[in-house]
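Components:
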Amino acid sequence: MTLIDLANPTRFLAFTARLLPWLAGVTAILLAIGLYQSAMAPDDYQQGATVKIMFIHVPNAWLSMFVWGVMSLAALGTLVWRHPLADVAAKAAAPLGAAFTFLALVTGSLWGRPMWGTYWEWDARLTSVLILFLMYLGLIALWRAVEDPSRAARAAAVLTLVGAINLPIIKFSVDWWNTLHQPASVMRMGGPTLDRAFLTPLLVMALAFSLLFLTLHLAAMRNEILRRRVRAMQMIHVAQAGQRPA
Amino acid sequence: MSLGPYANFIATSYLVVLAVVVLLIGWIAIDYRAQKRRLSELESEGVVRRSGRNMTDKT
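Structure:
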């Protein structure tokens, strides 16, 4: 099966049916390894044990932006190639992106209270991530508000691409402005500044959460394809009922 | 493993993540069953897709 074959919804469903159990299994194993390594990681000399929050905060923060990136690519697929699976992919990803962004905000807040002395600060990084969360909610509301899927797809695709402007703002906010949030310590020029004792569990957890997203995204896409089939059949059902003699 | 004076913050963080992940998995699983059930109902009512395919096949 080639990648082009997966562009067909029916083949995509058959492919995900075979792939999902394996993907879920690998994700669970990797999460277990990551959690074990996180638990065994030493305390930081400044932060103490609160450094353990990093192992769940950072993967969620990365995914909050990555998912919007995936949705932006899907938006191009909707607007440029008008591919039916592109909108399915974007719509299925939005609630997952909202959930990861919510978790990044909550875990960041719970990490900030003992380290910064506050749950929240209106600095550039925190505010831009909050805006990202609100944009996810706005997109979800848009898909729910517009009944015609093709109209909703185009409007959501345009909004997604406009919203992508926020991604570099989030990434570079800690460099462009004076923020309470620390600058990048993993994805930076010159390599990570984290000690291997923290970097290894962090990367394992990041990979595990990325696979978790992939698993949930494929499953949510499968649901969305089925939902559209239900809708199409309901319309046929209504049309058939209308043609029957009274 | 001692979590020190901020154990509540650490435990709460992990519990919130666990709760949200479980909610996501549950929501997707329930939604899948609901869509499959609705497809079966429509098929049993004699509704056929324009392609003529069986709605509740393995796809």
